[in-house]
Amino acid sequence: MDQLLGLAAENLISPIILSFALGVAASLARSDLSIPEAVAKGMSIYLLFAIGFKGGVSVADHGIDGRLGLALLAGITLSFVLPLIAFALLRVMTRIDTLDAAAVAAHYGSISIVTFVAATSVLESQGLAAEGYMVAVAAAMEAPAILSALWLVARGGDGARKMEPNLLREIMLNGSIVLLVGSFFIGWATGKEGLADIAPFIVSPFQGVLCLFLLDMGLVAGRGLREGGRIMRPGVLAFGVIMPLIGSVCGLGFGMALGLSTGGVALMMVLSASASYIAVPAAMRVALPEANPSLYLTLSLGVTFPFNLTLGIPLYLALAQTVNGG
Q1: Which of 318, 316, 295 is nearest to 239 (CA)?
Q2: Rounded Cα–Cα distance for residues 50 and 52 (Å)
Q3: Which of 141, 157, 131 is nearest to 275 (CA)?
Q4: Distances from the Cα of 21 to the Cαs of 41, 122, 217, 222, in angstroms?
Q5: CA–CA dist 238, 93 (Å, integer)
Q6: Helix (H, G, I), strand (E, B) or coil at 34
Q7: Lower CB count within 10 Å: N or C terminus of the chain?
Q8: Contact residues for 43 (Cβ-Cβ < 8 A; gap 6+)
């Protein structure tokens, strides 16, 4: 236990985590600190491209095999199943209705790409490698959770509700998915030679850009916490912390079953524990417009995201190291 806590404490004291904490603190203190929207969007594009490209290079170096296929299948399965667990937990812990519970549950089967990027950065700082195809697993886990949420709503008695014809297309063409998958294939096609050509752009500046981006995310999360206090009842708040822990345990089991490296197991845990606040909210506005965005956005971005970034990632990594070794 002492080793587990020591690893967690060590990982907490890092520039990326402290940058996020600064943003939250500044927002809660009502500072006028802000990052222009265009700059924040540019940084998100940079981070998605960089992580996708480097993941593709790693796959090119590793080669395509059955382990990649099994990892993708595991990710899709988790994305389908985790919303069902989240929905059941919400119905026990809170009094929110079926529609809102399904909308919230969808966020907890999909993934937060920023949390994933932050976790890869922590792994690199610890000198731990992870399978490059985990980027592909992250992309595969974006959409299935949305289908689970729609099934939950229909099962709850709203039989007239059907999936919009263009919803699946909009999900798959979401900008973050297109950029992540596209840069992954570019990195896969060009390999190490391509990485060497643009390394000064996507390798050296990566950590600094990530710190500034997480500073902005901290500001956003702090505003969500400050403004969403009226709907964040104790049961809802507790769900925002308990569900990531449940998801991480599921990810740990799948990662161990797949025989992933310690870094790969940690990333599978992070993916399973994170909550979407980009792709799923966009889909919910189309599929479940009656659901309360203040609830699911504040919960995913204002509660679970800060928890994962400050405590979750270090704990998941420490647990993966303890269980898997390395």
Answers
A1: 295
A2: 6
A3: 141
A4: 20, 16, 10, 9
A5: 8
A6: coil
A7: N
A8: 209, 212, 213, 216
Contact, 163 vs 287, CB < 8 A? yes
CB 138 within 8 A of CB 109: no
Structure-block tokens of residue 316: 């998941």
What is the rounded CA–CA span in Å between residue 24 and residue 20?
Answer: 6
Determine the residue type at 203: V
Q: What is the pLDDT along the chain (326 residues), one digit of tens a residue?
A: 555 555 556 656 778 778 888 988 898 899 999 989 888 888 888 887 887 788 788 778 767 778 888 998 999 999 999 999 999 999 999 888 888 899 899 999 988 888 898 898 888 888 888 888 888 888 788 778 888 888 888 776 544 345 555 656 665 676 666 787 788 889 889 988 999 999 998 888 988 888 888 788 788 777 777 766 666 788 889 999 999 999 999 999 999 999 999 999 999 999 999 998 766 776 777 677 788 777 887 788 878 988 998 889 989 998 998 888 76
Sign of CA dihedral 54, 57, 62, 64: positive
Contact predicate 120/57, CB 8 Å: no
CB 263 within 8 A of CB 77: no
Q: Residue 168 belongs to what H/E stretch?
A: helix 167-172
Q: Are 54 and 202 in contact, with CB atoms under 8 Å apart?
A: yes
Residue whose entry in the numeric block shows the structure tokens 């700059």: 39
Q: Encoding tokens for residue 287?
A: 């599929």
Whether the Cβ atoms of residue 217 and residue 20 lie closer than 8 Å to each other: yes
And the tokens for 132?
A: 């490059």
What pTM was estimated for this model as a whole? 0.76
With beta carbons less than 8 A apart as the criterion, state whether 274 and 111 touch: yes
| DSSP secondary structure string for all residues of 183-232 | HHHHHHHHHHHHHHHHHHHHTTTHHHHHHHHHHHHHHHHHHHHHH-TTT-
